[in-house]
């Protein structure tokens, strides 16, 4: 793989913007209760029984949570791999042209560096201007290539994101998940359902 395509990655921030956390079955009041349960316990009457408090907090402790690694989905799922291969094919010709232009610039610079001591001032100035123009053209084309590549990739992966969201929602409903998140500091493999989502995408691609 050549330089331009090999160094093109899908930005994590873009992934997080595309694939939002799927939240099912948890009402606003339940979330509010989870955040204030401790304060409510402190304010209860001295003669109040502890049984009702235990009963109230039980639903919170039984919440079923899942985790989805969005980067892995957009890297390892079959639809993502197919899209990546297709896009790289679309940009292969432009990428080769960039490599050719970079090679030409490198050769001209090496020749200039070798011959500069014996060149006239006029020829040296002309050669330097040509090298500068070639470098400017190369940088512009690289920038345009990267922008077009990223735009095309985002378009293709948006469709995969929609399918992934649908798969996550379907899994959550079938397996009674209350909350599925996509970002966390640390995650137990026990609640990671990424492979399940990838399998659903692969089967439905």
Automatic annotation (TrEMBL):
<comment type="similarity">
    <text>Belongs to the Skp family.</text>
</comment>
<dbReference type="InterPro" id="IPR024930">
    <property type="entry name" value="Skp_dom_sf"/>
</dbReference>
<dbReference type="GO" id="GO:0005829">
    <property type="term" value="C:cytosol"/>
</dbReference>
<dbReference type="Pfam" id="PF03938">
    <property type="entry name" value="OmpH"/>
</dbReference>
<dbReference type="GO" id="GO:0051082">
    <property type="term" value="F:unfolded protein binding"/>
</dbReference>
<protein>
    <submittedName>
        <fullName>Putative outer membrane chaperone protein</fullName>
    </submittedName>
</protein>
<dbReference type="GO" id="GO:0050821">
    <property type="term" value="P:protein stabilization"/>
</dbReference>
<dbReference type="InterPro" id="IPR005632">
    <property type="entry name" value="Chaperone_Skp"/>
</dbReference>
<keyword id="KW-0732">Signal</keyword>
<feature type="signal peptide">
    <location>
        <begin position="1"/>
        <end position="34"/>
    </location>
</feature>
């Amino acid at each position: 793989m050549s330089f331009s395509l090999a160094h093109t990655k899908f930005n994590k921030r873009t992934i997080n913007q595309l694939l939002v956390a799927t939240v099912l079955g948890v009402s606003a009041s339940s979330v509010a209760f989870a955040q204030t349960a401790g304060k409510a316990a402190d304010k209860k009457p001295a003669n109040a029984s502890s049984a009702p408090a235990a009963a109230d907090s039980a639903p919170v402790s039984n919440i079923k949570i899942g985790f989805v690694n969005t980067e892995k989905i957009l890297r390892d799922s079959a639809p993502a791999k197919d899209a990546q291969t297709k896009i790289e094919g679309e940009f292969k010709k432009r990428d080769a042209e960039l490599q050719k232009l970079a090679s030409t610039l490198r050769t001209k610079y090496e020749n200039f560096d070798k011959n500069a001591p014996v060149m006239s001032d006029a020829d040296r100035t002309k050669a330097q201007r040509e090298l500068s123009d070639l470098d400017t053209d190369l940088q512009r084309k690289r920038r345009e290539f990267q922008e077009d590549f990223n735009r095309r990739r985002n378009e293709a992966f948006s469709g995969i994101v929609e399918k992934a969201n649908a798969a996550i929602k379907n899994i959550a409903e079938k397996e009674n998940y209350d909350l599925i998140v996509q970002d966390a500091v640390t995650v137990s493999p026990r609640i990671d359902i990424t492979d399940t989502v990838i399998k659903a995408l692969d089967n439905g691609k």
